[in-house]
Fold these 4 entries.
Entry 1:
Amino acid sequence: DAGITQSPRHKVTETGTPVTLRCHQTENHRYMYWYRQDPGHGLRLIHYSYGVKDTDKGEVSDGYSVSRSKTEDFLLTLESATSSQTSVYFCAISDDGGPLQETQYFGPGTRLLVL
Amino acid sequence: GQNIDQPTEMTATEGAIVQINCTYQTSGFNGLFWYQQHAGEAPTFLSYNVLDGLEEKGRFSSFLSRSKGYSYLLLKELQMKDSASYLCAVKDSNYQLIWGAGTKLIIKP
């Protein structure tokens, strides 16, 4: 299994508070992704990174920001949490170099509840 | 828009064979992936197809027809541990993955 960890694994917070989720990888992969997963929807891309300090928006980026200051860490921040951001958040990684290397591998997920 | 369609839920019997279909309409095509996701866990990679035809990997096989925008995942000799959701995803012209909502497979003894 790819070495990907996420922290925290569970979090309960209140509306209006900022929240930061961390993804850490030990694979030295170039690409990192943040997804959210909600019932009835496929995984939806929030933001992704293609290198240190290189990030771009995904399909559902409003209300989220990211940072990647080191290859191994990719942070997702909810600037002011809302109840609609209650979800399961997955981090994924992939690399260059062909289909297997470009396959995305997922971290264990963070369950976030915004009250 | 881009769209991936899969059945929401399927039921099968232990020891049997089941086929999970996936149809897609995307802007470009750079490969199709199948993932397995057990309840409360992360998706795990099962298979990748980029050329038409069947890819076999043990009890699991995946088929692709690019002209029809269609794929299926075939699971043989079903085991109780195969109870999970199966996610279909297509890599589009921007090399981004577009995901289906997943098919929940229930295995009965």
Entry 2:
Amino acid sequence: QKEVEQDPGPLSVPEGAIVSLNCTYSNSAFQYFMWYRQYSRKGPELLMYTYSSGNKEDGRFTAQVDKSSKYISLFIRDSQPSDSATYLCAMSGRDDKIIFGKGTRLHILP
Amino acid sequence: KAGVTQTPRYLIKTRGQQVTLSCSPISGHRSVSWYQQTPGQGLQFLFEYFSETQRNKGNFPGRFSGRQFSNSRSEMNVSTLELGDSALYLCASSSTGRDLSYEQYFGPGTRLTVT
């Protein structure tokens, strides 16, 4: 079983819809959970960073962590064509090594 | 503030050769991490340098090495290149102190093609 699993997509949704992106993981030692956005030909950009369980909101973005289910989510409200990108989840534990998911390609259709 | 810069942006090498990639972090950032990104394996951590010392290392063979200079600039070297080394190599910097910071800023990457 891979440490971090993420559906590669592509995921296509109409503009204005709510987008749900998810990752599952197997290592219960993970404590730090991140979401990155990567546009084509660019490096990843940190969107959200959460420690342990719970929710965190930043504008149109909400990150959720459910440690009991080993499941994290990123919700994007009022999706825009500019949100079209690859979204990578990432997580880390006490050893400070960051493990990334392979990314989900998201297309927002105008 | 200028972002993370990586040079060169594109590189083509042949099997058996070696290559050196360069990364200049954001001014004031002392931590530099290197990652390899491929379609099959995704983004994988290579190593992290802080104040000229390697602080963390991923699961890559010894052909992959790096170093950091006193001005925090970092270089990564890959010797005896293999076809499977073709990838986007990303550098990320952060202003971490004692503990690893998760607020990493990535550069645009160096696209390495091995033929």
Entry 3:
Amino acid sequence: EVQLVESGGGLVQPGGSLRLSCGASGFSLSNYWMSWVRQAPGRGLEWVATIKGDGSEKYYVESVKGRCTISRDNAKNSLYLQMNSLRAEDTAVYYCAREFVAAALKNYFDSWGQGTLVTVSS
Amino acid sequence: DLQLTQSPSSLSASVGDTVTITCRASQSISSYLNWYQQRPGKAPNPLIYAASNLHSGVPSRFRGSGSGADFTLTISTLQPEDFATYYCQRSDTKSFGQGTRLQIK
């Protein structure tokens, strides 16, 4: 059974840093693109970042470029999101998600974790 | 502008009804369109990928259609567990629509 379990969320002051982790089990992490998706309280879904299976390609939404870094350790079956210079608008539940590649550009998020809450507030 | 616009933003229906949710892209996106369901307090669940393909295990009462810039998600014979929020997503840019909340009438 595919399982994704996020951790590392919490309360952080504006300007602070946080590192989110996502533990994967039930599949070979190295074979999959992985992403982070967030959801602010009462709001919709927002894609944050994506990383290729071997870590060689990374993509970010414009609002986090330069502040967040996605990374992975396939040997540890783990995905990470390092978030720096956090702002109030980064407050959200952060989900890690596995991408299934149906065809070129036809990826979709076929498995999701339960999410971890990040609150940026003084 | 690479937006996705869903309509309606919310709708009310009864168990047994058939409903349609629309997702319009600001430009043609071929069939690069996915649909997800999210129940309150839960992670999203995949429904449809590449506009019309059913994710494994999703009931056949869910149907996706469309190509280019206009897409629809149709849910036939609504079941109690279908009352949730639905999101479309562009698979080329990974951006999401704003969501459609389906409520019980």
Entry 4:
Amino acid sequence: DTGVSQDPRHKITKRGQNVTFRCDPISEHNRLYWYRQTLGQGPEFLTYFQNEAQLEKSRLLSDRFSAERPKGSFSTLEIQRTEQGDSAMYLCASSSQTGTNTGELFFGEGSRLTVL
Amino acid sequence: AQSVTQLGSHVSVSEGALVLLRCNYSSSVPPYLFWYVQYPNQGLQLLLKYTTGATLVKGINGFEAEFKKSETSFHLTKPSAHMSDAAEYFCAVSVNTGNQFYFGTGTSLTVIP
């Protein structure tokens, strides 16, 4: 089963350090999303790619956050100078859609970040 | 702008009883509506979705939901709860003019034997 995979599943880091998460979407999917989920909350949209183009970014995505999808396949989400408030589950989802977004999002199991 | 409200962050039902999870949305344009389920230590997976057409939609595992435009609701139901239904359920909305999916805060369903 080649679903959406995320790595690492868990990351513990000290405040001020940089972290990078990787997402491998389902291979034929052209759209890739990053979401953040904190305890007791639903997923919050961070950013979205169509192929290699980053088309939307949330206001939640401060300048310490950067995401890339260089060849339209896997994506990375980097957080620089981490803060305790960055502690959350970072979710990646992909979909195969053209035009309007009526399709299904396929989620990975998430990367849990703990900032000490 | 679009938003989703899920009433009840925790719902408990007895095994075999009706499951009702509430979702209300706000959208200035016709919405597309989704229910996702998240089992412990797993990613979210789609239960069902409404885009156009029939307002009563059926999903996996015996769940169904009805889109009621007049009430701006998309409540999720299942006639008879099973122990395996215990999970976190998220309602989500999107619109055809955008590419974002907006999620509610989730409802944790507990099934009591």
